[in-house]
Backbone:
């Protein structure tokens, strides 16, 4: 189902003429579902926001619609949906109310695994619950106007619509950060404007995205360093060209609190802000590592297992961007050759992590937002 497109050329209001479209899905065949424990922990942190959604009287008299924006393979969708449905499927009309659940993600997403994930959820088997899937970017309209009661989008919005910093500013980190910051502002305003058309008045929208901590703590710096060092090694060993390494770019931006406040101020006529907070989410494997160490387990096995888990977690999101870099900068390589290089990069990244950053904590900051449609 995945469709890769190459770089786009057009003018945008960031004053740039060349940028890379962000169309890379999470790793397919269920790989993302099995390697998204940190996102699962972030989802658990958001559950209290779901439990305090108020289902108003308009919504009570109508069909109840829930839309998820950026569901990936569904593993982290089910619990929020269960919490939302509990709110609506309780009370006088619990047996008669009909709910429509809409799962959306970009066209390249692994929708086959999503179907299997939904199929396995017992609580969705009621005859009054209907599900749909939409293969569309959330930077476009995804569902009809005025149709959604509750929307949510978890661990998604740090993924930019496109990478404005891709070509001309690769070597200018400050300028690149500023372009991404502007793109992230445009993207959030656009996302919230589109959702304001889709959500009914009084409807609730819950968001989480990777952020830049106000404490100054960096997000998983040791994983990033390991990936970079492994990439450099592969260039030095002539496994990939400098151009291929240079084409590797993950179009994300970690917003600060101030960035988010600025974007929310621009759409305050559309949305009332109910909650806004940041939190550090640690990869659950770190606690398991500490428990294993305390119980006297073999240190080498424990450290390797931890390295495997946290690197595989990161690769579930970024591996596709490595493959895309090869498609752009080394188009002569076939699918098998690309897969071999990807495997080598992953293995080298694990080795660097074990050598230089063994057992170091992997955590990531998120901003959580709850909005009510005015
Ligand atoms: C890190 S995953 C998070 C998935 C899931 N919500 C979770 O919490 O595990 C990010 C997801 O956002 C999706 N995504 C990124 N940009 C998107 C866009 N413009 N439109 C729709 N989905 C997008 C990706 O395809 C991916 O499935």
Residues:
């Amino acid at each position: 189902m995945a469709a890769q497109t190459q770089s786009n050329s057009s003018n945008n209001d960031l004053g740039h003429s060349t940028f890379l479209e962000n169309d890379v899905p999470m790793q397919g065949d269920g790989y993302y579902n099995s390697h998204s424990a940190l996102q699962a922990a972030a989802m658990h942190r958001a559950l209290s926001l779901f439990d305090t959604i108020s289902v108003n009287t308009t919504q009570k008299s109508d069909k109840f619609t829930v839309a998820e924006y950026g569901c990936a393979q569904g593993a982290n969708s089910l619990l929020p949906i269960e919490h939302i449905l509990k709110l609506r499927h309780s009370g006088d009309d619990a047996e008669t109310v009909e709910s429509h659940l809409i799962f959306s993600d970009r066209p390249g997403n692994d929708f086959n695994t999503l179907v299997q994930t939904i199929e396995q959820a017992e609580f969705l088997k009621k005859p009054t619950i209907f599900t749909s899937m939409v293969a569309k970017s959330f930077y476009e309209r995804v569902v009809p106007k005025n149709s959604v009661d509750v929307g949510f989008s978890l661990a998604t919005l740090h993924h930019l619509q496109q990478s404005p910093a891709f070509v001309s500013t690769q070597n200018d980190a400050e300028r690149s950060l500023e372009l991404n910051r502007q793109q992230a502002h445009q993207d959030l305003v656009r996302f919230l404007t589109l959702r304001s058309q889709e959500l009914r008045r009084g409807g609730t929208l819950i968001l989480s995205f990777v952020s830049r901590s106000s404490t100054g703590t960096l997000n998983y710096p040791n994983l990033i360093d390991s990936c970079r060092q492994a990439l450099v090694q592969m260039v030095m060993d002539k496994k990939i060209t400098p151009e291929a390494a240079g084409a590797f770019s993950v179009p994300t931006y970690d917003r600060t609190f101030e960035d988010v406040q600025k974007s929310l101020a621009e759409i305050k006529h559309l949305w009332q802000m109910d909650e806004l907070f940041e939190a550090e989410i640690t990869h659950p494997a770190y606690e398991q590592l500490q428990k294993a160490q305390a119980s006297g387990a073999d240190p080498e096995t424990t450290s390797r297992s931890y390295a495997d888990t946290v690197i595989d977690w990161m690769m579930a999101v970024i591996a596709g961007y490595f493959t895309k870099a090869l498609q752009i900068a080394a188009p002569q390589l076939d699918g098998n050759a690309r897969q071999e290089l990807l495997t080598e990069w992953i293995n080298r990244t694990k080795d660097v992590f074990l050598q230089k950053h063994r057992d170091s904590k992997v955590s990531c900051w998120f901003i959580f937002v709850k909005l009510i449609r005015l």
In short: Residues 25-26, 36, 39, 43, 70-72, 76, 105-106, 109, 137-139, 154-156, 159, 161, 317 surround S-adenosylmethionine (CB under 6 Å). The chain is about 45% helix and 20% strand. The first strand starts at residue 8 and ends at 9. Residues 1-18 have pLDDT under 50 and may be disordered.
